[in-house]
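*** Query protein ***
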Amino acid sequence: MNLLFFDTLTSSNDKALELLEQGCPEGTTVVAQRQTSGRGQQNARWESEAGLNLTFSIALRPAFLPAESMFYLSKAVSLGIVAYLRGEGIGATVKWPNDIYVGDEKICGFLIEQSICGEHIAQSVVGVGLNVNQRQFAHAANATSMLLCDGKTRDVGREVRVLVGNILNRYEALRDAVSRGGWAEVDGEYASLLYRSSGVFPYRCGSSVFTASIAAVQAGGELTLRTPDGKLRTFGFKEVEFVR
């Protein structure tokens, strides 16, 4: 495992992309104690108190993955993070498309930035922010941390190795599944760990609120919901939101 530690970076994703372009080994991970311009989905800011949490980016070259199935990388990353948290006794779930929840609170978010060559993904940078030892969050009303979940203070230097190991294990399992045509295996495990995986819940699309259950998450990442009358509605990122 090739981990590179930095006190301060503008963005660990930017540094990992720079290293990818320089030919770094796949799996190289950039760990930042502090980010001055860390970002989430669609450039949302990520709140993290320096030295208390995990903020890192993994450099990957998933050429085995067809561009049309790019969301499977997100599924693999989600499964790796959930496996790590559940191994710590924290009952995490995957909130579509790129958050990890404990109950109704967010403990982790990740951002995957990818470039495509032909019909396959040439390179990817997986940026992860996991709340570990932070107690208070000024700008995130529904945030939580591992410490708030179980009262344990953790050594972030040790935890990053365990978490990255879990994510890379799931990445290699995805590579194996693709080679065997085992898409359904990944789909099944991912679906079983989804936040609100069973039951009918409220969602918002624009100004409209409706109730539905999760029917599927498509290979391209779209969320398909089933309304109580049996109709299926499919949404891209930011087109629909969960209502608490």
